[in-house]
Structures are given as structure tokens and as C-alpha cells.
Design a protein that fits this description.
Elements: E1 7-13, E2 23-29, E3 32-37, E4 41-46, E5 53-56, E6 65-72, E7 78-85, E8 88-95, E9 102-103, E10 112-117, E11 130-134, E12 138-145, E13 150-159, E14 169-177, E15 180-188, E16 192-199, H1 202-207, E17 215-218, E18 227-233, E19 236-243, E20 247-253, E21 269-276, E22 291-294, E23 298-303, E24 306-311, E25 317-322, H2 327-330, E26 336-340, E27 345-349, E28 354-359, H3 366-372, H4 376-381, H5 386-402, H6 406-414, H7 422-431, H8 435-448, H9 454-477, H10 482-503, H11 509-518, H12 522-531, H13 535-544, H14 548-555, H15 563-575, H16 577-585, H17 596-603, H18 614-625, H19 631-642, H20 648-655, H21 672-681, H22 685-694, H23 698-708, H24 710-718, H25 724-741, H26 746-759, H27 766-769, H28 783-822, E29 863-865, E30 871-873, H29 874-884, H30 887-903, E31 912-913, E32 917-918, H31 930-943, H32 951-955, H33 967-971
Parallel strand pairs: 29-31
Antiparallel strand pairs: 1-28, 2-3, 3-4, 4-5, 6-7, 7-8, 8-9, 10-11, 11-12, 12-13, 14-15, 15-16, 16-17, 18-19, 19-20, 20-21, 22-23, 23-24, 24-25, 26-27, 27-28, 29-30, 31-32
Helix pairs in contact: 5-6, 6-8, 8-9, 9-10, 9-11, 12-13, 13-14, 13-15, 14-15, 15-16, 15-17, 16-18, 18-19, 19-21, 20-22, 21-22, 22-23, 23-24, 23-25, 24-25, 29-30, 30-31
Length: 990
């Protein structure tokens, strides 16, 4: 225990009366001390930095005057003092800002012994409700506003009519309620403590006690000066003390209590106790205190010239305070004590001096006091560090351990961090064989550890796991009644599982699973594996137990790897095919190809005839709903369809185009060769016919269909539309089969064959099927059909003649057009200009040089004239076309022109008209010379169309005005910026 003193005494001021007699009374509040002297002076000391002054209250009063009592509010602003002299008594009010006091006229002649301030509502400017207790046993209510300079009112409240003894102490507290403000008032005389309470005005509350009894506590005994004090904590009174003749009556205050007294009042006093003065005498003469001060945990009792500090809880004297008095005042001793609740200070005073009593860490040893009294909760509440709390827990733990309450002891031991080591505590329980208590200790210890103690948490959790398993095994081995054992067994199982759930993140996975396995706790092993998301172990266990639904539920959980679906698919589908397939169909992330082994394993097992094939159901879901394109999936579904007795589903599957509407994709995804082999093996002939047709093997399809159904063969033969020969061949196969398979009379067979010809829509004739009949068949039987066929042929011959006549007439017209074309000509005006050089076409001059490969007629240059009216010199046209066409074509034109030049032959051509045809001067020339052939090619290259009206002009629209070769010329026209440099003149050569 700390040996430093909690309460210390310092001399605050010597000769505080300032020569105005001796000190008779004192009050304090908010670092303000007000003294009353024997000569009627009021002396104010403001240690908070405010104004201090001396006021003479005896002015205007005859004879000797003395201050009887002085009172200061908790804020230090309001002061009430009573003066007693030969002329009677007067009560004064003074504000801290006033220069002189005001007498309360309505209280003249009354001696005020006690004042109760309204601590909750008082302000610096207004006292609000104040209750005064007088010498003749009366209570008054007053209120003063600083700005009014006088009291607002003085109201009579209550009077002790039966025993009119003086009121020695008053205290008031208020609390807000739904109905208004509730007042709690305590008043004491030398032998009684009265309590008043009510809602509303004070005047109304006290008026109600006229017709009912007042609740009071009476203690016999004589005491010179009775006092009543409240201890204020956080602006609220929490306990009280009454200095009475029998002892110190004290207790707690609960202003929210609902306990009522016999007269209907609320009893707000709790935990009442009486401290007898005999406990303070140490066996000697009992001396009663002359004054009392109340702190949070102690009473300060003024006995003689010393103050004894008594612990309120233990009722033991803990300290004695001595005062440094002068020789003049030592004989008279200390007069009284004063409390400054706002500043948390206590004062003592004698006739000349003021002493200050300071408090330092008052509650530091209270934990020990409460601990000695075995009030553990209060002891813990007053512990200031973990070492002290350990002492409290240790005492509780040892007490419980001694009384064999091991579970309670384990809980307290778990809270200890320093007083005992972990090993010492565990050895206590191991030594007496209390495994259950040890487990409780470990669990509680886990709760007190912080997350940073990872290693310790893991070790303790593992130990607790083993203790749980040991407890479970012991319960199974006990020979107790089954009902009791099962109840406790189930309880410990549930508790163990809850522990695993809470500790899953701190337990070592491998170690814990090994423990569970070694103890044979398979269910708990699965439970822990589920907590640790070891889904493979959990699923394997459920499959072994035959619980497919629970295994599938685990697989459906978020975060479970999809690979486990494929791993356990064979076992699950064999265990419960319906639930497994339903589970698969709820997911879109499965790859059906990886489920094929499981589905094939299931399909290999025998199934009832009317049983729903779950694999087919799932594959249909994949193909139709998920639009799966995996060939393996389609092949498997095809194989399952092929094994069914009814081939309708197989045919529908084969006819369905799964890839319809998809660009660059197949119409089906199964392997047709595999499908054909499978259907042939299973003898699904209609399916084989469809597959042959799909593979464009129409002959095989028709041949097979004829074995099954001739109608099917006809339908297959009719599918071929783009190959007329093949279609006819297929129909001949059908016709041969029909003829050969018909039974009955010969004439009936012939009629059926002729009827078959009508179904072919004219594709087959009677002559096509005649070879299929026997040689001895009579021609008369086919007379009608043959005549009909001959008539058709005759009509076709007549139609062919008409077409030939039309062709001959058309040829004659073309021949005439060619002859007319050879005689065509064009008229050129004498002013007609060349479209390129803009020179007159029909003029001659020195500037024109005869184009190579051409001859002239007189002085005229060769030229071309087009039907649109445009005319060009031959050389100009060559230059223009080679410039505007692509390089390869231009090179070809120049090469032809070069060949003409090298041949040096002058043809007899004068003018060339559009199309490259030259006017012929000698009609006797019938053979085409090589030079004419080259010239014809050149004409086709440059004069096939007018360059201004044909495609050449259209293609020039997209060409830039400035060619890449002319960019340097365009750049030379750029205007130079002024900032580039000084201007330079440009010289022009004329």
C-alpha cells in the first residue's frame, strides 16, 4: 500500500480577518472564500482571479454585531449572511459584482442557520429557488436576481410545529421528469433528519405536508453543532453524511429510485449506515466531532485541534491532520471545516487563520478496502492498474478453489496475468485431477488473450480440443443412466462444435484433424473440415454415408472448386442420379465433357423400361438449353438415343440443326461416321437413311430406304434438286424396286408402275422403266403409256423447230448489222478542235509532225473522232491516255506505238473512226497484215471509249489536283512569314 498521505494541510492565510475582529464563520465555493467576523465584517477572498473586498454589515446598527452564519453558492457568485447583535438579527444577500449588500427585509428578526442551493439550475445572474432554515424551525424560499438589486420574493414553506427546534443543515437536489422538475430536500435538526420530495413548485410541495406526516429519521443524543453534507460528483449528489448526536448517519442517494415510504414519498436514500463515535475513541473517552466534511470515500472529522480522516467504507481512521496554529489561537482550537465542492478542496479555520486541506488520489487504496470487505466488484472498480486487479482475482480464485468451486475458481484464475503464471495455475487443476475445470480455465484464458499472442492461442486451443475429446470419451465409457449420459453427451458435443467454430482460424489444421481422427470422432472431423473449407473430406464422408443430397449441397457452396464436381461425379450419380443431375442443371460453369466418364458409368447400368434416363435428361439440357457444341456430348447423347427401343427421339435428334443461324458453322456437331456405325450396329435403319442423306450419299440412302420403306426412299430421292441426272438415277432405283417387288397379276403391276411414273412429275418416262419388266411382257399392256410418251416427244420436237427458226432469224439480223457498221462515218467541222491541244483538227502546219505508224492524207495529221462528237489528234490522244491510265497500261500503249514505228509501213488509212476502225481505201485487201493487227490493238487501247466521256474521266475525279511529282512546284508558291527574315526582291527576266 502506498505510504504517501492522501490528505495534506497547508496554511492558506494567516490573520485572514484583517484586523476586523476574529473569524466566527466561513463558507467557500469555486475558489472563493467568504469569512464572517465578530465585528460584523464580511471578508471575501477570490483565489480564482476575481475581486476581493471587505464589507461592514454592522453599519447603521447600534451595539456590537457579529456574523452568525455565512453561505456561498457552488459557483461563488451569491452570498447570504446573518448578523446578530443587540438590536436583533438581519439576513443580507450580496452578489460578487455588488459593492454593498442588500438586507432581506422579510427575514428581519429571523436567524438563518442553513441554506440549500439549487445546484442544477443556479446561474451567475440568478439564484433561482433557495431554501433557508431558521433558528425557530421554519423553512423559507427566496430568489434573487442580480439585476433587481433585491429579492424577488420570500415565501414561507414549512414549520416544525410540534417540536420547534432549529434547522442545522439543509441540502437540495433536483431531477427532470416527464411531469416537471422533482425536488429532493433533506433537512436536519440536532436529533432528526427530515426528507421532502415532490414535483412542481416548492410552495406546493411543502403545502402537501400539512395534511400528511413528514418522513424523518430520529437519532437520540446531544451534539453542539449538527451538520448535513452532500458529496457532489459530476454535478450530482451521490451520497450524504449527517453529523448527529448518536454518530455519523450516511448513505447513498438514488434520485431515480421508486421505493416509497409509508406516507407515499419516494425514499431516495440507499445503503444507510451509522458510524458510532465509539469506533473513533480507541477505547478511551468518546469525543464527538465539532464539524464534518465529506469526500468521495472519507469523512473529515474535526475533533479538538485535529482532523481525523475516517474511511467511509471500512470505518477506520486512516490519517490525522494537524494544523500550524499560532499561540494565541491554539488554546481555542479549530472552529470548523468548509467544503468547496466545485474545486474539490476542504478548508479549516480558527479565529485568525485559514488552512487548506488538499486531496491526492483519494481512491488509490480503496480497492484494498473493498477487498478486505469481500466486496469484489467495488474493489475491481477502484483498481487503477492490472497488478491490483490480479490481486482481487487471485483472492476470489483462491476462495473459490478452497470451497471446491473449481469452475468458478477457473474463471477467476483465467483473468490473472501477473500474480500467477499460466503453468502454476494449470498444475493446480492437474494435481487434483479436475480436467473439466482445467478446460474451463483454458477457454476463459483464450478469451482474455489478444490476437497478437498467436502461438499461445494456438497451443491453448489445441490443448482445450484434446480435453474436449477426452471428456467426450469419458462420457461414452461411464456406466451412468443412458438418458442422463445422452443429455450431457449431447451438450458437450454441441459445446465442442461451438468451440471448433470459434477457434477454426487459430487451430492448426493438420494437428486438429489428427486429434479428431485418433479419437475416432468422424462427425466432428467432418464438421471441422467443413469449417476449414476442406470440402473434399466432407463430400467423401457424405458419400460413404450414402447422403448424396448433403454432398451435393456442399458442392453447391460458393468457393468450392469445380474440379470436385468432376471428381465425385461417378460416385454421386450412382448414389442418387436424380439429385445429382438436378444439381448439375442448376450450374452453368460445368464442362459436360468432363462429366462424360460418370455419365457413361451410369448408362452402363441396367435401368427400368419406364425409368427416366437422367443422363439423357442432362445431355438434352446441355444441347438444347446451354447450346453445347462439344462433339463428345452430342455423340454420347446420340448413342443413348440409339439404344432406346423407340427411335423417334433419335430421329428428332438427327434432324435437328443445332448450328442453324451461326455463320461459318456446321449444322450438327456429332460425328456422322460414328453415328452411322452406331445406328447400323443397333439396326436403326431409318436413322441410317437420314445419315446417308446428310452425308450426300444419296444412292446408299435410297438403297437402304428401299429395304425399310419405299415411301422413305421416294422422299430421299426427291431431296436431290441440283443434280437432275442423279435425281433421275435415284428414281430409277426406286422404280426398279417397285416393279420387282409388286405382287399380283401382270396388268395390275403395270398399272401400278404407270401410276408410279405420275409421282415422278415427268422425270421418268415409260421407256425408262420398260427394261425393268420381263421380256415376255406384252407391248399391248403399255400401249397407252407409250402413246402418251410419243405425244410428249412430238410436242418437244415442234418446240425445238420453233427455237431453231428464231435462232436463224436472229443470225440474219446480226449479219445485216455488221454490214451496216462497216459503212458508218462521222462529219468533222472545219473549226473542230482537238480535245487535248485545242488546235483545229483539219489544219496543217509546220508544228505538226506526222505520227509514227500513221499516214496522212495531204497535209492533215492523223486524228480520232468519237460518236459523242469529241475529236483528238492521234498523238494527243496517245499522250493523254498514257498520262491518265495506270503505268502498266501506259507501258503497253507505248510498246504498241514503238512496234508500229519500227515496221515503217504506211497503211492506206486516212481517218480512224471510233472503235479503232480505219477507213478502207482498197476493198480488195482481204487479209490482215501484222501491222493492222498491232494498229487494231493500239486502237482498242486508246480509242475504245472517249477519254472525256468514259470510265477514264470518272476515275480522274478521285485524283488530287496536284500530283506527287508537282508538290515541289506547289511549295514554291507558299507565302513566307514576316518573322522569317528581311524581305528580298525577286527579279523577273523578260
Amino acid at each position: 500500500m502506498d505510504l504517501r498521505q492522501v490528505f495534506t494541510v497547508d496554511l492558506l492565510e494567516r490573520y485572514a480577518a484583517k484586523g476586523h475582529g476574529v473569524i466566527t464563520c466561513m463558507a467557500s465555493g469555486n475558489d472563493v472564500i467568504v469569512l464572517g467576523t465578530s465585528t460584523g465584517w464580511l471578508i471575501r477572498h477570490d483565489f480564482g482571479g476575481g475581486d476581493s473586498y471587505d464589507t461592514d454589515l454592522s453599519t447603521g446598527r447600534a451595539g456590537e454585531q457579529s456574523i452568525h452564519r455565512v453561505f456561498v453558492d457552488p459557483g461563488g457568485s451569491h452570498c447570504i449572511a446573518t448578523v446578530i447583535g443587540t438590536g436583533g438579527s438581519d439576513t443580507y444577500y450580496m452578489h460578487a459584482k455588488w459593492s454593498k449588500p442588500r438586507v432581506l427585509v422579510k427575514l428581519r428578526g429571523l436567524v438563518v442557520n442553513a441554506v440549500a442551493w439549487n445546484r442544477q439550475q443556479i446561474t451567475e445572474a440568478s439564484t433561482r429557488e433557495v431554501i433557508l432554515g431558521t433558528q425557530n424551525g421554519q423553512l423559507y424560499e427566496i430568489a434573487v436576481d442580480e439585476k433587481d438589486k433585491r429579492e424577488k420574493y420570500v415565501k414561507f414553506l414549512f414549520e416544525l410545529s410540534e417540536f420547534p427546534v432549529p434547522f442545522e443543515g439543509l441540502q437540495m437536489e433536483t431531477a427532470s421528469s416527464n411531469n416537471g422538475t422533482r425536488y429532493y430536500i433533506m433537512a436536519v435538526t440536532s436529533t432528526r433528519l427530515y426528507s421532502f420530495t415532490g414535483i412542481g413548485l416548492l410552495e406546493t410541495i411543502f403545502a402537501s405536508y400539512v395534511e400528511r406526516a413528514v418522513h424523518f429519521m430520529e437519532l437520540p443524543g446531544e451534539i453542539p453543532n449538527s451538520e448535513l453534507h452532500f458529496f457532489i460528483k459530476q454535478r450530482r449528489a451521490v451520497h450524504f453524511a449527517w453529523l448527529s448526536g448518536a454518530g455519523i448517519y450516511h448513505g447513498g442517494l438514488n434520485f431515480g429510485a421508486q421505493n416509497r415510504t409509508p406516507n407515499g414519498d419516494i425514499n431516495f436514500v440507499e445503503n444507510k449506515a451509522l458510524l458510532s463515535y465509539s469506533k473513533l475513541s480507541d477505547g478511551g473517552e468518546v469525543v464527538k466531532p465539532s464539524s464534518i466534511a465529506l469526500s468521495e470515500f472519507h469523512f473529515l472529522l474535526l475533533i479538538g485541534n485535529r482532523v481525523k480522516v475516517v474511511n467511509r467504507i471500512s470505518e477506520q481512521i486512516v490519517e490525522e491532520l494537524q494544523f500550524d496554529q499560532t499561540s494565541e489561537t491554539a488554546s481555542k482550537g479549530i472552529i470548523g471545516l468548509s467544503i468547496d465542492a466545485s474545486a474539490g478542496l476542504f478548508y479549516a479555520y480558527d479565529e485568525n487563520s485559514i488552512f487548506q486541506v488538499s486531496v491526492t488520489d483519494e481512491g488509490r487504496d480503496m480497492w484494498k478496502v473493498y477487498l478486505d470487505l469481500k466486496e469484489y466488484a467495488a474493489a475491481l472498480a477502484n483498481c487503477s492498474d492490472p497488478f491490483k486487479r490480479d490481486q482481487v482475482y487471485l483472492v476470489q480464485a483462491e476462495a473459490a478453489f478452497s470451497s471446491k468451486d473449481f469452475f468458478r475458481a477457473a474463471s477467476f484464475f483465467a483473468k490473472i496475468n501477473y500474480a500467477l503464471s499460466f503453468e502454476e495455475i494449470t498444475l493446480k487443476f492437474i494435481g487434483i485431477g479436475e480436467q473439466d475445470a482445467l478446460r474451463t480455465f483454458l477457454l476463459r484464458k483464450l478469451d482474455s488473450l489478444v490476437k497478437d499472442d498467436k502461438c499461445q492461442i494456438m497451443m491453448i486451443s489445441t490443448w482445450a480440443t484434446e480435453l474436449y475429446l477426452d471428456k467426450i470419451n469419458r462420457l461414452l465409457l461411464e456406466d451412468d443412466s443412458p438418458d442422463k449420459r445422452n443429455s450431457e453427451y449431447q451438450s458437450i458435443i454441441m459445446e465442442f462444435r461451438a468451440f471448433l467454430s470459434d477457434s477454426k482460424d487459430v487451430l492448426d489444421e493438420a494437428t486438429t484433424m489428427t486429434l479428431l481422427e485418433s479419437y475416432g470422432r468422424v462427425d466432428e472431423l467432418v464438421y471441422f473440415a467443413s469449417l476449414k473449407e476442406q470440402h473434399e473430406i466432407v463430400i467423401h464422408h457424405y458419400i460413404q454415408q450414402g447422403e448424396a443430397k448433403r454432398a451435393l449441397d456442399v458442392l453447391q457452396k460458393p468457393g468450392v472448386s469445380v474440379d470436385l464436381q468432376y471428381k465425385f461425379a461417378p460416385d454421386l450419380i450412382m448414389l442418387d442420379a436424380y439429385e445429382t443431375v438436378e444439381s448439375w442443371m442448376t450450374r452453368n460453369d460445368l464442362n459436360p465433357r468432363k462429366l462424360i466418364p460418370a455419365m457413361m458409368s451410369y448408362s452402363s447400368e441396367p435401368h427400368a423400361k419406364n425409368e427416366t434416363h437422367e443422363v439423357i435428361k442432362y445431355l438434352e439440357y446441355c444441347v438444347h438449353r446451354l447450346q453445347n457444341e462439344d462433339p463428345g456430348v452430342h455423340n454420347l447423347l446420340l448413342s443413348l438415343y440409339a439404344k432406346k427401343e423407340d427411335d423417334s427421339a433419335l430421329l428428332r435428334f438427327l434432324q435437328c440443326k443445332f448450328g442453324k443461324g451461326r455463320s461459318n458453322g456446321p449444322d450438327f456437331f456429332y460425328d456422322p461416321k460414328y453415328a452411322l456405325r452406331l445406328c447400323l450396329k443397333e439396326k436403326r435403319m431409318r436413322a441410317c437413311v437420314h445419315i446417308y442423306s446428310m452425308m450426300f450419299m444419296h444412292e446408299e440412302a435410297v438403297a437402304l430406304a428401299l429395304q425399310v420403306d419405299p415411301e422413305l426412299a421416294m422422299a430421299e430421292a426427291d431431296k436431290v434438286e441440283d443434280d437432275e441426272d442423279l435425281r433421275k438415277k435415284l428414281w430409277l432405283m426406286v422404280a426398279k424396286h417397285v416393279v420387282e417387288q409388286e405382287k399380283g397379276t401382270k396388268r395390275e403391276n403395270i398399272r401400278k408402275a404407270i401410276a408410279f411414273l405420275k409421282e415422278t412429275d415427268g422425270l421418268l418416262k415409260i421407256e425408262d422403266i420398260l427394261p425393268f419388266f420381263p421380256d415376255f411382257a406384252l407391248i399391248d399392256d403399255f400401249k397407252e403409256a407409250i402413246c402418251s410418251s410419243l405425244e410428249d416427244y412430238n410436242q418437244q420436237i415442234e418446240k425445238l423447230k420453233e427455237e431453231m427458226n428464231d435462232a436463224t432469224h436472229g443470225a440474219d439480223n446480226i449479219r445485216n448489222d455488221i454490214s451496216a457498221l462497216a459503212q458508218r462515218y462521222a462529219v468533222v467541222d472545219r473549226d473542230e478542235e482537238c480535245g487535248v491541244c485545242r488546235r483545229v483538227i483539219l489544219s496543217a502546219g509546220a508544228d505538226y509532225r506526222i505520227s509514227r505508224g500513221y499516214t496522212t492524207m495531204g497535209p492533215l495529221s492523223p486524228f480520232y473522232v468519237f460518236p459523242c462528237g469529241h475529236a483528238f489528234h492521234a498523238q494527243c490522244l496517245v499522250a493523254h491516255v498514257t498520262k491518265c491510265t495506270d503505268p502498266s497500261q501506259a507501258e503497253h500503249i507505248l510498246d504498241l506505238q514503238k512496234q508500229l514505228t519500227l515496221m515503217s509501213i504506211e497503211p492506206n488509212v486516212n481517218v480512224n473512226v471510233n472503235g479503232g476502225l480505219n477507213g478502207v481505201a482498197d476493198d480488195s485487201i482481204t487479209s490482215v497484215a501484222p501491222v493492222d493487227k498491232i494498229r487494231s490493238e493500239l486502237d482498242d487501247a486508246i480509242a475504245s471509249e472517249c477519254p472525256f466521256c468514259g470510265d477514264l474521266m470518272i476515275s480522274e475525279v478521285s485524283k488530287p489536283f496536284v500530283s506527287p511529282e508537282e508538290i515541289y512546284l506547289a511549295s514554291s508558291w507558299d507565302i513566307m512569314s514576316k518573322n522569317v527574315g528581311p524581305e528580298k526582291g525577286i527579279s523577273f527576266v523578260v
